[in-house]
Specification:
The protein has 93 residues and is an alpha+beta fold. The protein is 39% helix and 11% strand. The chain is globular and about 35 Å long. This is HTH gntR-type domain-containing protein.
């Protein structure tokens, strides 16, 4: 399991964007930079909530957003894992 607390964003209320999106964007950037490697387990939603200083529902929504972006995959009773980035991900054709 990895920690995503390094360089976490500061939520000061000046950004009008939803907090779950800010958390998801931060994790997505770390995936794209290669800091979070494919097949690595993401911390649980409760741990993410604590690390980012957000509500559990916010952490859940952030993970759901990452799944919708196809950056992570959640396996029931196992955890959420970073997916391998593919150039054709997201292309419906």
């Amino acid at each position: 399991m990895i920690s995503v607390s390094d360089e976490k964003p500061v939520f000061d209320g000046s950004d009008p964007e939803y907090r779950y999106k800010q958390v998801a964007d931060h994790i997505a950037k770390r995936i794209e930079k290669g800091e979070l490697r494919p097949a690595t387990r993401l911390p649980g939603e409760r741990d993410l909530a604590v690390e980012y200083g957000v509500a559990l529902g916010t952490a859940r929504r952030a993970v759901r957003d990452l799944r919708e972006r196809r950056l992570v995959i959640t396996l029931p009773a196992k955890g959420t894992y970073i997916r391998a980035l593919k150039k054709d991900d997201g292309a419906d054709g």
